[in-house]
């Protein structure tokens, strides 16, 4: 067995030793990220080092998240090769795009993401934690490419793995306060230590984050405000040297005003004044006839049990989550009384409840040749949601709708009950053909069942929204049960050129579940009820190299992905003037490119990181009956090139403490914000600049930082709706959403 594989199997001992070292955790994380030292990842469902993992993965430790003032996933996505996360409008959330494939659908309640998100090994589903502020995390791993064997459902594009900081054997804690422009106020903190020495440990962490919006609403106030708070408590019980039980409970609440689009009159065309807001007032201005907002409460409980016996490592991961939410969005984001979408209510919020159970075993080396990770997985999700679309006077007059009793507006109401049940058997085996060559074989068999039922009602309103006629909900209508059994596999070879260089080649499969169109009850004659799963095959080669005696690292990956039955969001305009979303299996697509990540420490006080992605992603076939024929078009939010250069330099290190400066430059070439590739929706090439200056006292108990993000105040298109180009209601205009402007702030961290 090679020295590399011996070190890999000895990793748990190395981790234990590192945990008791005297260096600050943050310093270790930053050093590891920049100098090619050991970075622990769980991408392969076992603790391994980044340089030994035959997958394309980027890792961001606690130090990076703090020093770059990361609040949510979209804050660091542009630092990852071939990844973007445009922050959507009107409650759509971050639409993660990995290698050209967007993970989020507008059918939020019933569609699945293409990039699964996991917190401490538990699947958290769409919107689970991606759009909420992160806190007290050990690391975030971004896996690119399908993870259909070990991680399973809905990881066709990749996976995002959040790992919270575990309880510690020694008493410690920190508090971090932050203030900034747009009235930013944030407080994060944690305390951890033993309750019973070597037997019972605890950790308690929390965050409060609020910030004003950066879009002025001409109707009053600002749009895009955030007000979030969360708490996470943990207990870790160690009844013996080979057994640990870790219990995690978390609560999160969010009361936010969503962002809204800015309307622009198109060049050379005349549009209504209400649709020329951007031309007159600029891109940070909107005008809505209703304030879009969302309230959400998330509860979760996790139990992690690890047991080692006879060289076998057994693991149980149990997760439960419940989400209550309600709110309203202004569908078109204009001053017209056109359409509003309401979901849930304060007294009767929409509810999504999830339960999952994973049982897993990792074997010791068998017959001196094979080790295996295998397991069983169960997942259950239940949804209960009520919503309505309010069609306003502008639509009634424009389309000449003849409503009873002279009604001036209409509420089309629906109630949805949906459930998903999934069972899987999975595994991955490493067969050591020689000291240097390893065969990798993985499998997953998933059986999934979905059920969907709906009920509809209506209310006809006068000009003051008083109810003239109320048609109550009728009995539930059950649609056909959606059932699917899917096999996804992985096959590859890994070769250790020497102790510092590894190369690999893999073929892997992934899939994204099918489902039901959430909008179907509103227009059953115009929309399809179902959409099928999408699938992908990924061909990948990679190189992982540790350089200059550990002072640097170089990771290079090449890939080709072939997507079939790609789920695409399309929109239709009904005879009543409603603009409705539906998901359809409308396309085949291909994506290929190269990803490079490098780290180098040329001197003890200087750390450099670089990342770049080359990408070609296009629709190879498109069903024109879905919306239009987009064959040959580029996939949305998929620039041909993106890059990140990051550096950190200690200006001073001595008896008075440390002063460090760091900066990051990120760049991307042009991209389209929609599948139609409309010229109006093309974003030109752009660069962003982030920086931070920090002082740390000699005892490393206090750190004071001054930071800025998007210092050059670049504007990027993050949302665009081409349907407005052909909708007579919006003649001569279209809408845009833009990224966050220049932000800056000051933070102070106290550790104890």
Task: Give an account of the 3D structure.
The chain has a single domain (40-751), classed as Maltoporin, Chain A. It has a 25-stranded antiparallel sheet that branches. A 5-stranded mixed sheet has the order 3-9-10-7-8. A 3-stranded antiparallel sheet has the order 4-5-6, with no helix packed on it. The protein is globular, with a radius of gyration of 26 Å. Helices cover 6% and strands 56% of the residues. With 752 residues, the chain is mainly beta. The chain contains 6 helices and 45 strands.
Secondary structure elements and their pairing?
Elements: H1 3-9, H2 11-19, H3 25-35, E1 40-41, E2 48-49, E3 56-61, H4 62-67, E4 83-84, E5 97-98, E6 101-102, E7 115-119, E8 122-123, E9 137-144, E10 158-164, E11 172-180, E12 184-196, E13 200-211, E14 215-217, E15 222-223, E16 226-240, E17 243-257, E18 262-265, H5 277-281, E19 285-286, E20 293-309, E21 312-330, E22 339-343, E23 350-362, E24 370-391, H6 393-398, E25 409-432, E26 437-461, E27 467-471, E28 477-478, E29 482-498, E30 501-512, E31 515-516, E32 530-531, E33 534-547, E34 552-573, E35 579-603, E36 606-622, E37 641-654, E38 657-668, E39 671-672, E40 682-683, E41 686-696, E42 702-709, E43 717-720, E44 733-738, E45 743-751
Parallel strand pairs: 7-10, 14-19
Antiparallel strand pairs: 1-2, 3-9, 4-5, 5-6, 7-8, 9-10, 11-12, 11-45, 12-13, 13-16, 14-15, 16-17, 17-20, 18-44, 20-21, 21-22, 21-23, 22-24, 23-24, 24-25, 25-26, 26-27, 26-28, 26-29, 29-30, 30-33, 31-32, 33-34, 34-35, 35-36, 36-37, 37-38, 38-41, 39-40, 41-42, 42-45, 43-44
